[in-house]
């Protein structure tokens, strides 16, 4: 998966969890989990959606990398073939 | 003939707006089916039917705001056989007090002093009126007790009804025809004598008052409460504009949400003498167990610490039943089962406390699934009536917000609120040595009228003990 597609997929997944999320105001390195006030249930839903849509395995240890837009996009770009 | 009434969906609800019907007249309905959508000050809720049968005549149009307890529609018996002569004096249905009302029982009626009286949603009051005794009352007309009861409720004089049944018996259909033609009269409301006198003095219609007494009977203080609300220029009926509903942007606090919370919390703070206890629980065992489970589980089956915390809170409530129930009429009534209210903050502000019913019987996996579902629907979609009422104890978990300790305000008429903070690493003495351990602060706010500190302490030690054996939870 190229990085642009990965970033789009990340943004769509966030929007699915937080429908009114203002992604334009979000920098690539901002911790969106805090910025969008996602709680642990929201964040788990986000991981589930990423996993469902890409089929990639996401471990607890991967979670810290997945709290920013660029971290999530890099993760998917590297893992999803 | 049963009535489907505006249910009480929380101690802070006085009225609701019927938004839409989900079934058409004539459609079959089963107990537990959602039949209508109701908007309260705090949220939009699918309301279930408490009877099985067929959707009958609708009494209220969508867009109308009515007080709790107002009949919204009639539910007709599923099969509508003509009444046989041999049935005279024999009720066709059992008086349906317990089964229908039990589920709704903990739903507090609106207004001060609301207690675990059966909610209005439980249907009509049991037929204890003399009409049900089987003795003919109005002389001329032959009619079964249920038909007489219906006539009384509909304000129809049996003597003036032409019976079309066998041998000139008056049937339900006759009563309905007559009542459709007759000017609607308020059904007879169960009320105490003092309440009736007070209502007459204050000019309050008893049918507009939500009863907080046994079987939803209206009591004097319900009447004075209604009078006070009315004098505060609170019109009982007003059309809700569709535009106002549709225009609320997502993420903005529902109109009325703040006021509803304000009313409930003011009442809690005024009426409940709270006492507060706190303890710090070593979460090493629980955290290790979670990590181990989550390493092996696929994403949808992963557990959050909240699943174990809620499970421990529910089991501890079963062990210390003095904290699981309601304070009403100057005494404590234990809850039937542990129904865990979970405070959920909404994006844009405000909160709702949907209920995990029989939470003590759900293992952490089932609790986790139920929690995800409830929270998602509380924030994005619709909750059902049974999911916002009947909590016997409430849990608030502010750990995600970074808070370590939360001392909450009890939701009346409940008598306890459990607070969980964030799981944090702290220096911790174990066996004379200092180590770094994940710990969580568990608090209890409890009603001192119902329990003393020793009971609360028992509860917190139970939570601690349970969390040390996560594999047994």
From TrEMBL, chain A:
One Pfam assignment: PP-binding
Gene3D superfamilies: ACP-like
Domain Carrier positions: 1-80
Protein name in the entry: Phosphopantetheine-binding protein
Source species: Streptomyces toyocaensis
Phylogenetic lineage: Bacteria, Bacillati, Actinomycetota, Actinomycetes, Kitasatosporales
UniProtKB/TrEMBL annotation, chain B:
Molecular-function annotations in GO: acetyltransferase activity; lipoic acid binding
Family annotation (Gene3D superfamilies): 2.40.50.100, Chloramphenicol acetyltransferase-like domain, E3-binding domain
Keywords, ordered alphabetically: Acyltransferase, Lipoyl, Transferase
Low complexity compositional bias, start-end: 98-111, 130-141, 178-189, 233-249
Cofactors (names): (R)-lipoate
Name of one Pfam family that matches: Biotin_lipoyl
Keyword Transferase among UniProt keywords: yes
Enzyme class: transferase
Protein name, per record: Dihydrolipoamide acetyltransferase component of pyruvate dehydrogenase complex
Organism: Streptomyces toyocaensis
InterPro entries registered for this protein in UniProt: 2-oxoA_DH_lipoyl-BS, 2-oxoacid_DH_actylTfrase, 2-oxoacid_DH_E2_comp, Biotin_lipoyl, CAT-like_dom_sf, E3-bd_dom_sf, PSBD, Single_hybrid_motif
